[in-house]
Write a structure and sequence with these properties.
The radius of gyration is 21 Å and the shape is globular. Strands 4-10-9-8-7-5-6 form a 7-stranded mixed beta sheet, sandwiched between helices. It has a 4-stranded mixed beta sheet with strand order 1-2-3-13. The chain is α/β, with parallel strands linked by helices. It is built from 11 helices and 13 strands.
Length: about 400
């Protein structure tokens, strides 16, 4: 195995291979059942095997999927996103989060031939070499030469990064809606930071790209910074938009349309119709059922339960993140040893979560599932409290 799906990075209790999923539960190949708080690392928004989404996909597969060109579903889906997301005037479809974020950078560079991209130190924007760490195996110094880092929620560091890059050579600033780096507590953006990034991009003529791959459709259907009143030039979406079926999209504003038209961007599977059918169903269901509020309530219940449990066992924890993307860390645990031990015990007790990556809620997480998850986390707290 390779990448983030490699269980070798996790405690030994974690399974590597899975057999099936349903609702908010997954079963490994040995038959063990888990309440899943990772949702396949984010893509499962409405629960595994959602009948309406899967019916839309199967019905489209019966007609066509990958053809010589797109079906009319591409137009319908593009119009749905443009109607839904205020900053969006056009859409470009692809497959993965890396596709969408990299496509955004390519379009921004095409506009005026600028080279530099600014990203927050520690942020993850996919496996494109422009956004990976400098010492990433298989990359060269030249791959990283046009990437300049700043600190999240620190406008002074953004200004310093602009100075280092040269204001007239900055093509884009790429930023996540919240700070969701691994191995640290999640952090909301300050309104001043979001507004300041918008102002800096306007001043220097760079594109503001919101990487909504992880947060999109969990925080706000319109885009995760709409509540702050800050609109990006582009937003990159994937994970949730087809409830597990492979699809991604770059949304952009009118002033960048000509640059988007100019680039050559393609993939043999990018215009597949079945995932688009799944996406249309997913967007409709989320809208009709007020799914974001459902996830928020479930996440709040989980977060408060974890705080109460840890306190009752004399453990010092921080529960962070918006409720739809919760996370828990232990005090004085720089190497995540206690987190690894606790999540290993959680898995043994039928709860699948992660020691150093944020978790995800779905609309399938009902009260009974949260109660079942909290029973497992409480037992895990009890076990590790005896080791302190």
């Amino acid at each position: 195995m390779h990448g983030h799906l490699d269980a070798a990075f996790l405690p030994p209790e974690f399974p590597q291979f899975f057999a099936r999923g349903e609702g908010c539960r997954v079963w490994d190949v040995d038959g063990n059942e888990y309440v899943d708080l990772m949702c396949s690392w984010g893509p499962i928004l409405l629960g595994y095997r959602h009948p309406e989404v899967d019916r839309a996909v199967v019905e489209q597969l019966a007609v066509a999927d990958v053809l010589n060109g797109p079906t009319s579903l591409m137009v319908e889906l593009a119009e749905t996103f443009v109607d839904q997301v205020p900053h969006a005037d056009w859409a470009m479809f692809c497959k993965n989060g890396t596709d969408a974020t990299t496509l955004g950078l390519v379009v921004a560079r095409a506009a005026e031939g600028r080279r530099k991209v600014l990203i927050a130190r520690g942020s993850y924007h996919g496996i494109g070499s422009w956004s990976t760490r400098v010492d990433a195996p298989g990359t060269t110094p030249e791959d990283h030469a046009n990437t300049v880092s700043f600190e999240y929620n620190d406008l002074a560091s953004v200004e310093a990064a602009v100075d280092r890059a040269g204001a007239d050579d900055v093509a884009a600033v790429v930023v996540t809606p919240i700070r969701h780096d691994i191995q640290r507590d999640l952090e909301a953006p300050t309104p001043e930071f979001a507004e300041g990034l918008r102002a800096i991009c306007d001043r220097i003529g760079a594109a503001l790209i919101l990487d909504d791959i992880r947060c999109g459709l969990r925080l706000d259907m319109r885009g995760s910074w709409e509540s702050l009143g800050v609109q990006p030039d582009f937003s990159a979406w994937s994970k949730t938009i087809a409830n597990g079926h492979p699809l991604a999209v770059l949304l952009g504003s009118e002033s960048w349309r000509e640059a988007a038209d100019s680039v050559f961007a393609t993939g043999s599977f990018w215009m597949a119709a079945a995932p688009m059918a799944g996406a249309l169903a997913t967007l409709r269901i989320l809208r009709e059922t007020d799914g974001i509020e459902t996830m928020r309530r479930a996440g709040e219940r989980l977060q408060q339960g974890l705080r109460d449990q840890a306190h009752s066992h004399g453990l010092d924890v921080t529960v962070s993140g918006p409720p739809q993307l919760p996370f828990l860390s232990f005090a004085d645990d720089p190497q995540q040893q206690r987190a690894m031990a606790w999540t290993g015990e959680c898995v043994k007790n039928g709860v699948y979560l992660h020691p150093y990556h944020n978790w995800f809620m779905s609309t399938a997480h009902d009260d009974a599932s949260i109660d079942r998850a909290l029973a497992g986390t409480d037992e895990a707290f009890r076990v590790i409290s005896g080791r302190v």
